[in-house]
Amino acid sequence: MNTKKITIRLLIGIILLTNNSIYAQNIWTEGVNNTKSGQFVCKMYSSTNTITVKKSVTDERVNYKLKMEKGESVKVFINSEKEFSAILKSVFDNKRIKELISSDEKLELLFALDSDGNPIQITFRLISSTAITPYELNEIDEQIKSKIKFKIKRDFPRKDDHINMFFHRIKFDELLNGEIKSLKENEEEGKRYW
């Protein structure tokens, strides 16, 4: 009888350890990550304990150069902070946002935009131990590409093929509080160009 109890306890312990080790593994690995949500390319940076993840795209425009004349300034504005926040809140509910805040998660986005301001590719920079999943990044990627518009304001118009870049850091506590202040300021500043 005692042997049976010990055997059962050992089995339960092994199951719990196995499950914990599965959850403790990193979601992302260096290189190409094939998932149900698509193919992502991940690069790890040990010096900063961060990773960059971007969904593979076949759009050739992603290879265009970032072109600027000497002394030229380029500004990029979003059409709606409210829509941007709604996208993130559709992917992360309040409970999930609180989990991400407690794990010191960050979400930095670098947009490669065509000359008309359409997103071609989004690069996400995350902490190396991120809990953000491929499914979540895929949802953010797809929704931003279909719902968010960007306006590019250049000092000098360009006719040749090029890309424009827009970077933004999302603070999850701001998202939880209902407004991403810096995106709202960007939207307000850009209203005169729409």
Report on this model:
The protein is 38% helix and 27% strand. It is built from six helices and eight strands, in the order αββββααββαββαα. The strands form two sheets. A six-stranded antiparallel sheet has the order 1-2-3-6-5-8. A two-stranded antiparallel sheet has the order 4-7. Strand 5 and strand 6 form a beta hairpin. Helix 2 packs antiparallel against helix 4. The N and C termini lie far apart (77 Å).
| Overall pLDDT | 86
Distance between the termini: 77 Å
Supply Rg: 21 Å
- Overall geometric form: globular
**Counting H and I runs of at least 4 residues, what is the number of helices?**
6
Regions with little confidence, pLDDT below 50 for 5+ residues = 16-25
Physical arrangement of strands within the biggest beta sheet: 1-2-3-6-5-8
How many strands, which pairing sense, and closed or not: the largest β-sheet? 6 strands, antiparallel
- Approximately how much beta-strand content do the residues carry? 25-35%
Helical fraction: 25-40%
Pattern of helices and strands: HEEEEHHEEHEEHH
- Give me the count of strands: 8
Strand-pairing-aware structural class: alpha+beta
How would the blueprint of this fold be written?
Layout: H1 2-24, E1 31-35, E2 38-45, E3 50-55, E4 74-78, H2 81-91, H3 94-102, E5 107-113, E6 119-127, H4 134-147, E7 150-154, E8 164-170, H5 172-177, H6 181-190
Antiparallel strand pairs: 1-2, 2-3, 3-6, 4-7, 5-6, 5-8
